[in-house]
Structure formats: C-alpha cells, structure tokens
Amino acid sequence: MNDKRILILGVGNILLTDEGFGVRAVEYLEAHYRWPAHVRLMDGGTQGLMLMPELQECDFLVVLDVVLGPEAPGTVYLLEGEDLRKSLSFRDSMHQTDLLDTLITCDLAGNRPEAVVIGLQPFDYKTMHVGLSPQAEALLPEFCRKAVAEMARRGILAEPKAE
C-alpha cells in the first residue's frame, strides 16, 4: 500500500451528538498517531459532492463514520462493497448527496477509489448537541486503536505519538 495515495476521511455532522463521531475520530488519529507521507487525514464533515476532488486524488479511501446496523450501540463495523450503504453518510444522507453517490460520480469522472468504512453504532445521533455522547466519547480511543489495527492489516502503518 506504500505506492497508493490513501485518504482517511472522518465524516458526519458535529452538531448532532454521535453523528459527528467520524470527525472526532479523525481528529483523534491526527493528534495521537504519526502517519506516512502518502496518507492524508481529513475532516469531511457533511460536504457530500464537495469531497469529489479529494476522493479523486486518492487510491484508497478509509471513511470513519457512524453506522446504523442491527447490533447494540458501541458496536464497531467494517464495511466494504455493497455494505457501504449501512454507513450513515452512505445512505439517505441529510446533506446534498451521500458518499456512495459521490463515489459513483468519481467513477463516471474516471477515478473511483477503493473504499472501506470503519464505523461505530451510535448511542445518540438525533439530539442537537455539539459533542459526543458520554458513551461514544469513552469509546473513541478504543475505536481508534481498532481502526489503526485494521489499517495496519491492510499495510497502512501508523506510529503512536509519545504522550
């Protein structure tokens, strides 16, 4: 994976409690880990199609998000292929378009990166509140360790920064 351009994208709406978990996760990864030069971390917020230039410049996309799945809140999911729509930002988005539509548009424009979602089943994603729920906040470091381990399994290596 050293020859691939990798984008780690945290997405979500930080105004809706745990909906902003992906954004907070990418901030945590940036603050606590050193990444190789070919890996870029980015807060994608709720930008939808506005992310297209960044997506077209990468070969491999790691999206950090919340996932509405069948399991209990706090469950960590790894989604690929058709399962991408389970990610909140990949289906029925409240924003201008969902990320899967953006990836399809990238494909039509000539460069669709391979994508994976690492997501958390949210505790509360509907309450208007800046900040994560206490439960999601407590799980953030563990979630990020699991995300780093999954990326390492794929050859994307990060080093913890000294505390």
From TrEMBL:
| Keywords for the protein's UniProt record, in alphabetical order | Aspartyl protease, Hydrolase, Metal-binding, Nickel, Protease
Binding of Ni(2+), residues: 19, 65, 95
One GO BP annotation is: protein processing
> Which InterPro entries does the annotation name?
Pept_A31_hyd_express, Pept_HybD-like_dom_sf, Peptidase_A31
The highest taxon in the source lineage is: Bacteria
| Gene3D superfamilies attached to this UniProt entry | HybD-like
Output the Gene Ontology terms for molecular function. Answer: aspartic-type endopeptidase activity; enzyme activator activity; metal ion binding
Recorded family membership: Belongs to the peptidase A31 family.
Checking PANTHER family in the record gives:
HYDROGENASE 1 MATURATION PROTEASE (PTHR30302), HYDROGENASE 2 MATURATION PROTEASE (PTHR30302:SF1)
Q: What is this protein called?
A: Hydrogenase expression/formation protein
Taxonomy of origin reads:
Bacteria, Pseudomonadati, Thermodesulfobacteriota, Desulfovibrionia, Desulfovibrionales
